[in-house]
Amino acid sequence: MEQSVKGQVAIVTGAGQGIGRAIALRLSQDGMNVVLVDLQGDAVARVADEIRANGGEAIALSLNILHAEDRQRMIESALSTFHRLDALVNNAGVQRIALPLDVNEEHWDHIMDVNAKATYFCCQMALRHMIEQKNNGRIVNIASIAGKMASTTYHPIYNVSKAAVLAMTKTLALYAARYGVRVNAVCPGMIETSMQDMVDHEIGRITGQAPAEIHVERNARIPLGYMGDGADVAAIVSFLVGPDSHYMTGQALNADGGVLTY
């Protein structure tokens, strides 16, 4: 059985707002020391301040996970500050709205580079250290139900990128299991975040609907009848990072109010 996470160290990418912020706060509440990473330095610094004000330990890093040297700095900062690395939560991601025939190569490259390529190489870098440390490391990749289904046709490359996240989660889980490292994913559905607000506005631009109308339609497709929030996703991440999931790897757990049942 794995040990309690108290005193262990987690990196959370995209931690400056929304789901990432909720994950960072939850892991700190669980007793972990957290390394918070975001492109928006002011935002992630505020989250770190919030954690420290509540008695937790956190450092904030303003960096771009698209750059190999920044990914290296992320790992090195965790090790130099807290002297270990137990968990990585790959939450950073981007979204862009366009119909399938309107997607261009720049659109494809941007979404795939952030959501898939950077996630993979963050995993790779963390795995090297977790395997060397022999400390039952855990990686949790934030995917999406869009990776399991074509949730809409308005973000086709986002769908592709999140399917890639699920594929790499399964492959890396198979590889890392022999070293005692577990790799799992969480698939949020419709979650109340600023990204979701942006999606509603952009879809409205294409369809001519008001964002509030789109919001109501989204809720109507959720069996539980309402959109979740960041804490709902963070609770599942907490479980996957914690010892109660010690016999789980290569899994993709939905946080979607019942939209998907597989």
TrEMBL record:
Q: Which Pfam families match?
A: adh_short_C2
Instruction: Report which superkingdom the organism of origin falls in.
Output: Bacteria
TM ranges are none
The record's annotation in PROSITE patterns points to: ADH_SHORT
Enumerate the UniProt keywords alphabetically. Answer: Oxidoreductase
Q: What family does this chain come from, according to its entry?
A: Belongs to the short-chain dehydrogenases/reductases (SDR) family.
Question: Matching PANTHER family, A to Z?
Answer: 3-OXOACYL-[ACYL-CARRIER-PROTEIN] REDUCTASE (PTHR42760:SF133), SHORT-CHAIN DEHYDROGENASES/REDUCTASES FAMILY MEMBER (PTHR42760)
Name of the protein this chain belongs to: Beta-ketoacyl-ACP reductase
Organism, per UniProt? Dictyobacter halimunensis
User: Which gene name belongs to this protein?
Assistant: fabG_1
